Amino acid sequence: MTNPQSLIPNHQSPTYDWIVVGAGIAGAALAYELVKKGYAVLLLEQHATPQNATRYSYGGVAFWSGTTPLTKQLCTEGIARHQILPEELDFDTEFRELDLLLTIPVDINPKEVAASYTRFAISPTLLNVKEACELEPLLNPNAIAGALTVKHGHIHPDKTTQGYITAFLRAGGEMKIEQVTNLYPQSLCLEGRNALRPYSPNLLKFTEVQTTTKTYYSANTVVCAGGLSRQLFQSSNVSIKLYFTHAEMLETPPVDSIQLRTLVMPANLKRFQLETESSKNDGVWTQPDCEVVPPILDTGAIQFKDGSFRFGQMSRAITNPFAHIDSAESEATMREGLKKILPILGDLPGTWHRCLVSFSHDALPLVGLVSEHERLYVFSGFSNPFAIVPPLAQRFANWVSGGKDEIILKLCPQRL
């Protein structure tokens, strides 16, 4: 592995084959797959202690949830990838399969809900109230008309990401904790020897990435900054149809006295409707501090192997990524919802957190070259990240190395 010195005047900055912006699950997996291909890769992350959507997620791997040939294939590849990742990365990702319980409110017909799930690769099984409570004894039987259940993958999102990063560094990658402020997709043409192994022309092209402390140069840059991706592109005068919600959750310390057997979520997730409605008009996202649609609550909970809980989730479509949110009011709303479904969890001591979750209008990620900007890529907007990021990271690395990939082409930003 070489780390070529820059051909930039004064030789002040190293030059990389790839700069990956963002070290959540998307950036970490992609950086790892790129360095495996022999590229010189720099991974940039603004927080030493993660504050991203990966950090505050449930860690679910919905490998059963594909609804089209494309998503079914990616989900199948994703679960196969997770089964071998711990050995490949030499890191315990805490991968397991558990029962997902999708609760149905008392005022909804369970059979109608079950019928809406027949389009998935694996259709969940409909349970009556008694069966649902036998599977998950912590449920409030008076709050549900029934539930759906299906086997669901689960990982520890932080540990999986750290596993990717550790393997990336071990393979020769480089990581820095710096905040990216600007991207300059205009290529810099420099005469000189070829410092980048995958490229042969004597006329070299570089992209420029500015952080709060330094400027880096790379043959290619890929933005994997999740909910901050849109803001970063906008600050660099690059237009992209990528959006985000403010997702809020509560996290508890380890609890030994209570055991949640399943991952509990509502059968009718409001978040997907919020994403569809809030992304109909791209122009509204240029307005500062605009709440595009009202907030929603999807009450759910998961207990990790160490006994800690994460539950929530409030989602808000506000155009300002740094918008003020009344944490006390949000926490009270989430706890009220939790007490209805899982009463014993409602008063557990916990800490309120929020993060940004990126998405696109058609629920598929944006993967590939950004329109009209040679050597600037995006890898963001994942609605089912833990299922499809690992296989897509592999596919992306193969594609930029010269391989053909119809799935990558179908996910290009220009489709929207």
From TrEMBL:
Residues 17-399 form the FAD dependent oxidoreductase domain. GO terms for cellular component: cytoplasm. Gene3D superfamilies: D-Amino Acid Oxidase, subunit A, domain 2, FAD/NAD(P)-binding domain. GO terms for molecular function: oxidoreductase activity. Keywords: Oxidoreductase. SUPFAM superfamilies: FAD/NAD(P)-binding domain (SSF51905). PANTHER family: FAD-DEPENDENT OXIDOREDUCTASE DOMAIN-CONTAINING PROTEIN 1 (PTHR13847:SF287), SARCOSINE DEHYDROGENASE-RELATED (PTHR13847). This is FAD-dependent oxidoreductase. The lineage of its organism: Bacteria, Bacillati, Cyanobacteriota, Cyanophyceae, Nostocales.
